[in-house]
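Sequence in, structure out. Go.
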Amino acid sequence: MSPEDLLTELQKGCSTKISETLEAIYRVCMEQRKRGVDDYSISTISKLGTQRGVPKAQSIRNKSGEKYRALIASFAENSPVKDLGKQKHQGLDWIDEINNPKHRLLAKIQASELIATRKKLQEIIPPNLQIDIYDYKSTGLGSEHKLSNQERRALEYLLSNSFQSKWKLTPTDYGELIDENKHAVFKAATLDAIKKALDFL
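Output:
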């Protein structure tokens, strides 16, 4: 039986408080599953959910915590993730050397999230894809994208006082050029775009 189905079964006929506690445990266990951390020990689940309605570890271990233990065990049995200790080939064996249990747990969570992120990146980025980043200004590469001297002078003229005075245009804080009737001749951000082009092309 899946944890989801078991949660539904366990909540049948129980008090509101127990039902809410089961729900809190379920949420914490689901977070562990999403992180890819195969650690469903009672102490771990209790620590992670201590501020969210999950009882203390001893309460879960007591006879009254039978339903809670069953739900946690269900996640452990149905976990698609194997013990992080088996991933030592990925350089994670150092985590087990951390003495502080809280820090060890946090390190496992961070490591599992890193592994999951790497897998996503491998799915998104094609293998052997080379990404080149050019700083056109300092390297001189990509000259075909640079402004010619004539193009640069044309853009500089649009920013000049002589052009704006000739056509009675006024710049605004929004990067516009407006005429005497307050109508935008150059739309918002046009002046900013011209400045960026001059800086980077």
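Check: Residues 101-124 form the longest helix (24 residues). Residues 82-127 form one domain.
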